[in-house]
Amino acid sequence: MEVKVELNGSIREQEVIALYRSNQWSSADKPEQLMSALRGSHTLVTARVGGELVGLGNAISDGSLVVYYPHLLVHPDHQGKGVGRK
């Protein structure tokens, strides 16, 4: 399984909502707010297998000292396979 990791790449609402729903995150019920938050993040990391979004993480930072990682998730079908370590 080859995992492609990308920083600040493009994301589509449909794939993001599917990933959040697969993890039972309530953020999936607020797609406009979720997408705005992710796109406004200091850093957005995506993990894809065969083009499919299987992992996502974002960072909010002051650009100097403080970094907060509010969302880190991997699709349940890919958990335990090293996606999060990439």
Automatic annotation (TrEMBL):
GO-annotated molecular function: acyltransferase activity, transferring groups other than amino-acyl groups
Stretches assigned to the N-acetyltransferase domain: 6-86
SUPFAM superfamilies membership: Acyl-CoA N-acyltransferases (Nat)
Pfam families, per the entry: Acetyltransf_1 (PF00583)
Protein name (Swiss-Prot/TrEMBL): N-acetyltransferase domain-containing protein
Organism encoding this protein: Vreelandella aquamarina
